[in-house]
Specification:
Helices cover 77% and strands 0% of the residues. It contains six helices and no strands. The longest helix has 41 residues. It is elongated. The termini are far apart.
């Protein structure tokens, strides 16, 4: 039983670290999985003829393993190195949540961690989707000009 009637934690230091590790790991893994999806969509839209050779089962498994492995190692590393500045000792639930949140705001490492785990992957993902959009727009224009230039009558098609 983690909580008592007073909402204080038993083994609060352990649970605080585990919660912090899961928080960092799962949010990092989420954005990395979105990056993997954007890479998959890039090959599907921009290189449709080579898609099946470039994105196969082995590549998909590797992308999943890298995203989960990286995020788990990063979450563990942040907790082990002590970069999470939350103070959970001798705190009740509300105090622990407030001190963890406010303690992280003023830490030097938190902006670096946020850049590595959110903003850089999000920027990469946005660049890939911008490239996809531009290629799709160019393909739509190409199809439109092909349709307008190839208006044949039914007798000419036969």
């Amino acid at each position: 039983m983690i909580f008592t009637v007073t909402s204080c934690w038993y083994h609060e230091d352990l649970f605080c670290k585990v919660r912090g590790m899961f928080d960092i790991s799962l949010s990092t893994c989420s954005i990395l999985n979105l990056c993997c999806i954007s890479i998959d969509r890039y090959y599907a839209v921009c290189m449709p003829l080579t898609y099946t050779t470039k994105i196969n089962d082995r590549v998909v498994v590797m992308m999943i393993l890298v995203s989960w492995g990286t995020s788990c190692l990063f979450g563990k590393g942040v907790i082990i190195a002590g970069f999470d500045q939350g103070k959970c000792e001798e705190s009740c639930l509300l105090d622990a949540l407030i001190s963890t949140t406010l303690g992280c705001i003023f830490s030097f490492y938190v902006p670096v961690i946020i850049m590595l785990t959110f903003f850089i992957p999000a920027f990469i993902m946005l660049c890939i989707y911008l490239k996809i959009f531009l290629v799709a727009q160019r393909q739509a224009r190409s199809i439109q000009t092909t349709k307008s230039g190839a208006t044949l009558t039914k007798t000419e098609r036969k």
